[in-house]
């Protein structure tokens, strides 16, 4: 009884394993600290010096970054103008197609309903003809905008690779 109380409550447990784990953790901590110190003293200072030599600060940011951003905006502006024109033409075309389908349905319903006056059916027919012409015009405008954007793509790619 005296022997077991002398060894303590840890007797027969994994005390030695815990001590080994903690020793290993301390060694790993020292290694990581040493690597961090070497990075801060050697690599960080070299990178900082390289940045000073290659990047020139202006009042707000680096001159090189500002030049790249300006060149990007300069290359992007004409392409974005064409793209927005394409999106407007696309929206007009889809709106015209939707209007044409709606008018065609109204005309078909009016033709099938004997209570609708003939002159109203005739007006719907005229409206459908106008809608078809509008669809054709908007389709041509959409195709022209798409062709314009596609023909500009090589120049855009060239300007974006500055």
TrEMBL record:
Keywords, comma-separated and alphabetical = Coiled coil
Indicate whether Acyltransferase appears among the record's keywords: no
In the record, what terms sit under GO molecular function?
phospholipid binding
Q: Which InterPro entries is this protein grouped with? A: AH/BAR_dom_sf, F_BAR_dom
- State the superkingdom: Eukaryota
A Gene Ontology BP annotation from the UniProt entry: plasma membrane tubulation
From the UniProt entry, list the residue stretches annotated as the region Disordered: 97-118
Domain F-BAR: start-end pairs: 1-162
Cellular component (GO) terms are:
endosome; plasma membrane
Q: Which PANTHER family match?
A: PROLINE-SERINE-THREONINE PHOSPHATASE INTERACTING PROTEIN 1 (PTHR23065), SYNDAPIN, ISOFORM C (PTHR23065:SF11)
Protein name per UniProt: F-BAR domain-containing protein
Organism encoding this protein: Octopus bimaculoides (California two-spotted octopus)
Taxonomy of origin reads: Eukaryota, Metazoa, Spiralia, Lophotrochozoa, Mollusca
């Amino acid at each position: 009884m005296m022997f077991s109380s002398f060894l303590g409550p840890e007797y027969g447990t994994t005390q030695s394993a815990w001590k080994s784990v903690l020793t290993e953790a301390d060694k790993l901590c020292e290694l990581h600290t040493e690597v961090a110190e070497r990075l801060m003293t050697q690599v960080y200072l070299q990178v900082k010096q390289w940045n000073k030599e290659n990047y020139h600060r202006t009042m707000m940011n680096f001159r090189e970054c500002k030049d790249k951003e300006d060149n990007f905006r300069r290359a992007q502006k004409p392409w974005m103008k064409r793209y927005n024109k394409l999106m407007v033409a696309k929206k007009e075309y889809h709106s015209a197609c939707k209007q044409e389908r709606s008018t065609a349905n109204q005309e078909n319903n009016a033709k099938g309903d004997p209570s609708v006056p003939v002159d109203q059916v005739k007006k719907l027919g005229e409206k459908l003809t106008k809608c078809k012409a509008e669809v054709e015009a908007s389709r041509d405008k959409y195709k022209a905008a798409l062709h314009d954007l596609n023909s500009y793509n090589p120049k855009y790619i060239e300007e974006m690779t500055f």
